[in-house]
Amino acid sequence: MEKKINKTEARLMKGNEALAEAAIRAGMDAYFGYPITPQSEILEYFETEIPKRKGVVLQAESELAAINMIYGAAGAGARVMTTSSSPGISLMQEGLSYIAAAQLPCLVVNVVRGGPGLGTIQPSQGDYFQAVKGGGHGDYHLIVLAPSSVQEMADFVFLGFRLAEKYRMPAMILSDGALGQMMEKVDLPEEGSLPHTIPGWATMGKPASRERNIITSLHLQSEKMEEINLVLQENYKKLKSEVRFEEFQTSDADILLVAFGLSARVCQKTVELAREKGIKVGLLRPITLYPFPSVRIKELAAKVDFILDVEMNAGQMVEDVALAVNGIKPVHFKGRMGGMIPSPEDVLEEIESIIEKQSVGVF
Questions:
Q1: Residues near 42 by beta carbon (within 8 Å), at least 6 away in sequence
Q2: CB 29 within 8 A of CB 78
Q3: Are strands 56-59 and 80-84 parallel, antiparallel or unpaired?
Q4: CB under 8 Å to 43, separation ≥6 — which residues?
Q5: Given 1, 102, 227, 267, which residue has the most CB atoms within 10 angstroms?
Q6: Does 7-241 match 245-358 in CATH topology?
Q7: Are strands 80-84 and 245-248 parallel, antiparallel or unpaired?
Q8: 311: left (phi over 0), alpha (psi -120 to 50) or beta
Q9: What is the pLDDT of residues 300-310, one digit of tens each?
Q10: What is the pLDDT of residue 209?
Q11: Cβ atoms of residues 9 and 196 within 8 Å
Q12: Domain ranges within the chain, ordered by starting residue
């Protein structure tokens, strides 16, 4: 059973600031980052609060520098974190691959903005592939958590650190510009409620009683590199026990919506609007994007007429939904791009269009 974190204080906070405050309360030892809209408030909050409390905060000269500082501090056993937004996370991919190969825990936050390129500072979900498929080189994964509220922006900091340390791998919170900027009531966790001790594998000097600890991602012998890869793959299989998702009115649904993050909030309203019109729509919201709730989606697919995947991109998670469904039922897609957010009415209109096309045999 998952340990409950005591909530001791309620505040009205911006998502980015709630996340930063939660990180301090989670016992973060060090933060290394670089400012980029729409997540700069996180760095600014740390620069204001950390000097009054405990920890290290450093604005690096670039995202490349920040992720390699994370690599070094994590190797020394520190509880460490970085944050950025889409182009900055792209620059961190090489370092994330190194960290994954070295089996080091850390927390990375991506407050996604519209792209590709420099794009726009408006919210998007266009970084799904980069997050869940391993945006850097090699065969690796991150644990990926997708919040849909300011409360979860705070809660998932604790969850992200806990999972990263349990499985010795990087965890990512995949947020977006709207969740980072919006203000909601948040119940903050109790400070110090996530214990942390220096792990035995850390590079903290060598006592006479043990062999030296070596942390590296460089293995020139192919046999050794394959051995490391096999260890990683076995660890990823264990993540099946960490699958998390949320369901809304799926018990009698004829149509299933699948959406994460901000899109899921939109789809909750769509479910209400559809049911007011007599259309039985339900929603599954993946909370862990990796590991993905494939088993549950397949179970629900057997009970509905079709699935509609809704995202703020050109269609990325829809591929994982379709793989989960495995041809049992049709999977359709509704997306907006470039920082545009679909409305509940947009999604309902798409549902009605699919129903109409099915009735005349188009699908």
A1: 16, 17, 19, 20, 33, 83, 109, 111
A2: yes
A3: unpaired
A4: 31, 33, 34, 35, 57, 59, 83
A5: 267
A6: yes
A7: unpaired
A8: beta
A9: 999 999 999 99
A10: 85
A11: no
A12: 7-241, 245-358
The encoded tokens of residue 28 equal: 């973060």
Q: Provide the β-strand partners of residue 110.
A: 84, 174
- Using the structure block, give the residue that is written with the tokens 């604790």: 158
Tokens standing for residue 21:
């405050």
Give the span between the Cα atoms of 278 and 51, in whole angstroms. Answer: 56
Closest CA to 256 of 232, 274, 239, 234: 274
Q: Which two tokens stand for residue 295?
A: 């088993």
> Which two three-digit tokens encode residue 59?
């604005």
The two tokens of residue 165 are 């340390």
- Tens digits of per-residue pLDDT, 120-138? 999 999 999 999 999 999 9
Helix (H) or strand (E) holding 33: strand 30-33
Phi-psi bin for 192: left (phi > 0), alpha (psi -120 to 50), beta?
left
C-alpha distances in angstroms, 278 versus 63, 259, 306, 358?
A: 50, 21, 16, 17
φ, ψ of residue 11 to 5 degrees: the values are -140, 155
Q: Which two tokens stand for residue 248?
A: 């809304």
Q: Cβ contacts of residue 52 below 8 Å, gap of 6+?
A: none
Of 305, 314, 299, nearest to 356 (Cα)? 305
Helix, strand, coil percent content, the chain, rounded in steps of 5? 40, 20, 35
Would you identify the CATH topology of the domain 7-241? Rossmann fold (3.40.50)
> How is domain 245-358 classified at the CATH fold level?
Rossmann fold (3.40.50)
Q: pLDDT under 50 in the chain at which residues?
A: 1
For 166-181, write each residue's pLDDT tens digit. 999 999 999 999 999 9
- 184 Rama class: left (phi>0) / alpha (psi -120 to 50) / beta: beta
